[in-house]
UniProtKB/TrEMBL annotation:
<feature type="repeat" description="TPR">
    <location>
        <begin position="381"/>
        <end position="414"/>
    </location>
</feature>
<feature type="repeat" description="TPR">
    <location>
        <begin position="70"/>
        <end position="103"/>
    </location>
</feature>
<feature type="compositionally biased region" description="Basic and acidic residues">
    <location>
        <begin position="205"/>
        <end position="217"/>
    </location>
</feature>
<feature type="region of interest" description="Disordered">
    <location>
        <begin position="187"/>
        <end position="253"/>
    </location>
</feature>
<keyword id="KW-0539">Nucleus</keyword>
<dbReference type="Pfam" id="PF13414">
    <property type="entry name" value="TPR_11"/>
</dbReference>
<protein>
    <recommendedName>
        <fullName>STI1 domain-containing protein</fullName>
    </recommendedName>
</protein>
<dbReference type="InterPro" id="IPR041243">
    <property type="entry name" value="STI1/HOP_DP"/>
</dbReference>
<keyword id="KW-0677">Repeat</keyword>
<comment type="subunit">
    <text>Co-chaperone that forms a complex with HSP70 and HSP90 and preproteins (e.g. chloroplast preproteins).</text>
</comment>
<feature type="repeat" description="TPR">
    <location>
        <begin position="242"/>
        <end position="275"/>
    </location>
</feature>
<feature type="repeat" description="TPR">
    <location>
        <begin position="2"/>
        <end position="35"/>
    </location>
</feature>
<feature type="repeat" description="TPR">
    <location>
        <begin position="449"/>
        <end position="482"/>
    </location>
</feature>
<feature type="domain" description="STI1">
    <location>
        <begin position="519"/>
        <end position="558"/>
    </location>
</feature>
<dbReference type="GO" id="GO:0051879">
    <property type="term" value="F:Hsp90 protein binding"/>
</dbReference>
<keyword id="KW-0346">Stress response</keyword>
<keyword id="KW-0143">Chaperone</keyword>
Length: 570
């Protein structure tokens, strides 16, 4: 139950529904309160919603339950950073690195906790976090600017690198936005001298009563723009040129003119080395061209440069995911999916993205299939099956199971190995496992009659005589003269007739009824109001019972209950 709730929580978290994820993780914690992973996952979900106090509480519980698990300290550090407790965050990351010195997430967190904080510069802090867009949307003056693509693009650039704010100070819209974000008004009308009016020498006129007037709102003067230095002007111009090159590169990429796209992205990088999107875009082109080494090199540079510039974790994750995709392509030749799997896992520690998670699952599946292909050897499989047969004859069933299992690994399509292992499980009393192997036989080869006889025998031992009868009859469709199947049918008929005649001992009747009550078909019959009325009529209303007997569907259900010992014939 806890694992199921955890899986639901992980799925909700991956899709970005953190509130639902918290609900499922809490349910899992109630079922397994000592599972440290559950507290770790819920801490991450709380942090994603900026509920850092709860995230810290869960992170502390994670470390308390599993003090030697490095990821717990990563959660602890992230929560402390969210609460602006940077010293405590630094200590947490350092403790985690003592346990796992090569952990990239802990290294990145430590660098983040140790860097000079933006709180010394309120102008920089104003542009950080999602609250910026909420404030600009709420203010009537700046709300209209959000309809202008060039303004939105400018604000995104400032948010990405707030230290470049002075490049855009000539834009009156940016200054107005800054005032909204800082909750201040630039300039003002306070303290202005009021000019005296000249006295009027004419006699006072009769004053008409006036309606009270609302004071006119003061008009704020436009702020004086900051003058850009020549260096700032040049930097801004280079950034604009770089963006233009990027857009041309994007257009070439869509046209599949890859060489031209690479030229444009390269020029953009030369003009502006503070935007890693040029690197990740060029890496995407190399990936399309099959130049995987170049793609990986660009992705590594993007990750390294992104960490230096304190880029958004999503961009770092994007670069790592793209690198993983290139490694998957290379793995199809090298047969080594492990580097790709490790890279996708690193990407998920930066940002949990459903697309990256799918790529990870696909890579792990490909690795497993490759391992199975490399292990496939029909000759060894036959040798292992023969060894199992030898132990089976000696009645050493556990040893036989071991060899049959190895034969199945070596050749998963061999129905004989499944059939033989089913016989072993039957001898050992492991009927559910035997039933599973018998059904696998039929799944692999529907004409393999031995599979039907194995399955029917197990169902017979489980006292499911109706099901066993159906299995034997299905097998006879493929081999009508098969004596083993015919004998199985005969045994089932004897047991069913025995119940019909009421010849069961009290112990047999009780056992059969208990078994039948676990059968969903019997449960559905007994819960059906119509069938309950039919059963009552058979006991109390002979005339109505005669009418029911004309209905084949009703009689089939009655026969099922009779065979199960639920209804007895008198």
């Amino acid at each position: 139950m806890a694992e199921e709730a955890k899986a639901k929580g992980n799925a909700a978290f991956s899709s970005g529904d953190c509130a639902t994820a918290i609900t499922h993780f809490t349910e899992a914690i109630n079922l397994a309160p000592t599972n440290h992973v559950l507290y770790s996952n819920r801490s991450a979900a709380y942090a994603s919603l900026h509920r850092y106090a709860e995230a810290l509480s869960d992170a502390k519980k994670t470390v308390e339950l599993k003090p030697d698990w490095s990821k717990g300290y990563s959660r602890l550090g992230a929560a402390y950073i969210g609460l602006s407790q940077f010293k405590e965050a630094t200590d947490a990351y350092k403790r985690g690195l003592e346990l796992d010195p090569n952990n990239e997430t802990l290294k990145s967190g430590l660098a983040d906790a140790s860097r000079p904080r933006a709180d010394s510069n309120p102008f920089v802090e104003a542009f950080q976090g999602p609250e910026m867009w909420a404030k600009l949307t709420a203010d009537p003056g700046t709300r209209v600017y959000l309809q202008q693509p060039d303004f939105v693009k400018t604000m995104q650039e400032i948010q990405k690198n707030p230290n470049n704010l002075n490049l855009y100070m000539k834009d009156k819209r940016v200054m107005q936005a800054l005032g909204v974000l800082l909750d201040v008004k630039f300039g003002g009308s306070k303290g202005e001298d009021t000019e005296m009016q000249e006295a009027d020498s004419s006699p006072p006129a009769r004053k008409e009563p006036e309606m009270a007037k609302k004071p006119e709102p003061a008009v704020e003067p436009e702020p004086e723009p900051m003058e850009l230095t020549e260096e700032d002007k040049e930097k801004k111009e280079r950034k604009e040129k770089a963006q233009a090159e990027k857009e041309q590169g994007n257009a070439s990429y869509k046209k599949k003119d890859f060489e031209k796209a690479i030229d444009h992205y390269t020029k953009a990088m030369e003009l502006d080395d503070e935007d890693i999107s040029y690197l990740t875009n060029r890496a995407a082109v190399y990936l399309e061209m099959g130049k995987y080494e170049e793609c990986i090199e660009d992705c590594d540079r993007a990750v390294e440069r992104g960490r230096e510039l304190r880029f958004d974790f999503k961009m770092i994750a994007k670069a790592l995911t793209r690198k993983g995709s290139a490694l998957v392509k290379m793995a199809k030749c090298s047969k080594d999916f492990e580097p790709a799997i490790e890279t996708f896992q690193k990407a998920l520690t930066e940002h949990r993205n459903p697309d990256t998670l799918k790529k990870l699952n696909d890579a792990e599946k490909a690795k497993k299939e490759l391992e199975q292909q490399e292990y496939f050897d029909p000759k060894i499989a036959e040798e292992e099956r023969e060894k199992g047969n030898g132990f089976f004859k000696e009645q050493k069933y556990p040893e036989a199971v071991k060899h049959y299992s190895e034969a199945i690994k070596r050749n998963p399509k061999d129905v004989r190995a499944y059939s033989n292992r089913a016989a072993c499980y039957t001898k050992l009393g492991a009927l559910p496992e035997g039933l599973k192997d018998a059904e696998k036989c039929i799944e692999l080869d529907s004409s393999f009659t031995k599979g039907y006889s194995r399955k029917g025998a197990i169902q017979f031992f489980m006292k499911e005589y109706d099901k066993a009868m159906e299995t034997y009859q299905e097998g006879l469709k493929h081999d009508p003269k098969n004596q083993e199947l015919l004998d199985g049918v005969r045994r089932c008929v004897e047991q069913i007739n025995k119940a019909n005649r009421g010849d069961l001992t009290p112990e047999e009747l009780k056992e059969r009824q208990a078994k039948a009550m676990q059968d969903p078909e019997v449960q559905n019959i007994l819960s059906d109001p119509v069938m309950r009325q039919v059963l009552a009529d058979f006991q109390e209303n002979p005339k109505a019972a005669q009418e029911h007997m004309k209905n084949p569907m009703v009689m089939n259900k009655i026969q099922k209950l009779v065979s199960a010992g639920i209804v007895q014939v008198r």
